[in-house]
Amino acid sequence: MRKIVILTGAGISAESGIETFRAEDGLWAQHRVEDVATPEGFMRDPELVVNFYNARRAQAAEVTPNAAHRALAQLEAEHDGEVVVITQNVDDLHERGGTQTLYHMHGHLKGALCASCDHRWPAPMVMAAGDACPSCNAPAARPDIVWFGEMPYDMDVLVGHIAQADIFVAIGTSGNVYPAAGFVAEARHAGAHTIEFNLEPSAVGNQFAEHRIGPASQTVTEWVA
Ligand code: BJW
């Protein structure tokens, strides 16, 4: 009963119509990372950041899971052993595609977080800068997103899953952002077979034992079949 741990990134949602970050016309070509994806950027201009995530939330609500999301749910349903999906994505396409065991290590567009007391609650479709926290009442609502310099969620649990993996798979992630980019090294250290699914080898591509090159909707579906 082999345990499969799967890390996904923006590339798995690209064919659903959500831009990736580091493509030539991706999100970081349109917005300065320092402005929209750091706590310092949020302190400088909360309205800019909240509007950036309002637009992303609206876009995510309009798209649907693609064949790669559905294939992972099928794998989980049919595999004789544990399947764990760790996503860096903040959309809900894995959930809507049917995946059950899922970790959002970089947070979620559907969440709001109090910058003052850390209380979490469901985000409205349109957040406003200065919205009050329902728990402490501070005007400190922010998107529940892990920005640069912040600790990704559930790290202890994720590291435990990776240490037990028999197969570690990364799908549609550029391998530029840590700690996620370091998971392949941890999985290899634990003795897992490692497979990368991408349009091209990632920044940590040389650490994978096997590569499946091409659009995830095809390569992941073929792998699961
Ligand atoms: C397809 C496809 C198709 C396209 N089919 N494939 C120096 C060295 C090492 C680390 C650091 C350092 N300086 C600073 C750091 C730490 C920093 C970091 O990594 N910085 C780097 C830039 C160097 N990391 C952090 O700050 C993290 N926190 C942290 O480290 O805490 C301390 C800690 C210590 C010890 C243990 C644990 C923690 C936090 C990182 C937060 C990242 N946040 C973001 C934005 C918020 C979310 C959002 O707004 O959506 O998360 S950044 C952005 O990048 C987003 C993504 O989740 C993340 C990864 O991007 P992803 O998914 O890989 O997308 P792309 O666009 O880069 O790649 C897409 C890929 O898909 C490409 O390869 C395409 O080819 C492929 N593709 N179509 C298959 N159809």
UniProtKB/TrEMBL annotation:
The active site is at residue 106. Coiled coil: none annotated. Binds 1 zinc ion per subunit. NAD(+) binds at residues 9-28, 88-91, 172-174, 216. InterPro entries: DHS-like_NAD/FAD-binding_dom (IPR029035), NAD-dep_sirtuin_deacylases (IPR050134), Sirtuin (IPR003000), Sirtuin_cat_small_dom_sf (IPR026591), Sirtuin_class_III (IPR027546), Ssirtuin_cat_dom (IPR026590). Substrate binds at residues 53, 56. Its EC number is 2.3.1.286. Its cofactor is Zn(2+). It comes from the Bacteria. Zn(2+) binds at residues 114, 117, 133, 136. It catalyses: N(6)-acetyl-L-lysyl-[protein] + NAD(+) + H2O = 2''-O-acetyl-ADP-D-ribose + nicotinamide + L-lysyl-[protein]; N(6)-succinyl-L-lysyl-[protein] + NAD(+) + H2O = 2''-O-succinyl-ADP-D-ribose + nicotinamide + L-lysyl-[protein]. Pfam families: SIR2 (PF02146). Keywords: Cytoplasm, Metal-binding, NAD, Transferase, Zinc. Residues 1-225 form the Deacetylase sirtuin-type domain. Signal peptide: none annotated. It is found in: Cytoplasm. Belongs to the sirtuin family. Class III subfamily. HAMAP family: Sirtuin_ClassIII. NAD-dependent lysine deacetylase and desuccinylase that specifically removes acetyl and succinyl groups on target proteins. Modulates the activities of several proteins which are inactive in their acylated form. 2 residues (Tyr-53 and Arg-56) present in a large hydrophobic pocket are probably involved in substrate specificity. They are important for desuccinylation activity, but dispensable for deacetylation activity. This is NAD-dependent protein deacylase. The lineage of its organism: Bacteria, Pseudomonadati, Pseudomonadota, Alphaproteobacteria, Rhodobacterales. The gene is cobB_1.
